[in-house]
Amino acid sequence: MSGLHSIVVFCHDPYVMAPFWSAALGLQPVEEDADKLASRSLGHLESVLLHGEGHPQVWVTPVEALDPPGNRLHVDVSGGPDLVRQLGQLGGRHVRDEQRWTVVSDPEGNQLCVVPGGSPGA
Predict the structure, then answer these.
(1) Tens digits of per-residue pLDDT, 56-73?
(2) DSSP codes joined into one string, 59-112
(3) In 3-state terms, what secondary structure has residue 58?
(4) Per-residue pLDDT for 31 more than 60?
(5) Which helix (H) or strand (E) holds 33?
(6) Cα 102–103–105 angle (5° rounding)?
(7) Angle at 73 between CA 71 and CA 78, to 5 degrees
């Protein structure tokens, strides 16, 4: 079964973007990330995880360059190989396999990840 697992917001400055998206979505950073935001001690290109009961995860992820260019918001969906095949039949394209997910592009080149198992927001 597929469903929304998480949303990734690509950015240049997580110290600005994480508080913005936290307020906009009513989600809080996980404790470790909140501490790192407060002390400005995030590692180079380290993501911030925003979460809330019953909501999909939101990752605020710094990048040096967008891949593909213009792809600032990115969704992760729960699913597996069957969903990857179905998306391919609907005009999507398999981009690459990562250790814990598969990257797929939609018919216009916007990328998403298919994350195995789990339920939305888990």
Answers:
(1) 999 999 998 877 777 788
(2) EEEE-SS-SSTT--EEEEEE--HHHHHHHHHTT-EEEEE-SS-EEEE-TTS-EE
(3) strand
(4) yes
(5) helix 31-39
(6) 140
(7) 115
Does pTM surpass 0.85?
no
CA distances from 20 to 1, 3, 29, 118 (A): 32, 25, 11, 28
CA separation for the pair 20, 12 (Å, rounded): 13
The Cα 2–Cα 102 span in angstroms is 14
Three-class secondary structure of residue 118 per DSSP: coil
Two structure tokens written together for 14: 């997580």
Amino acid of residue 14: P
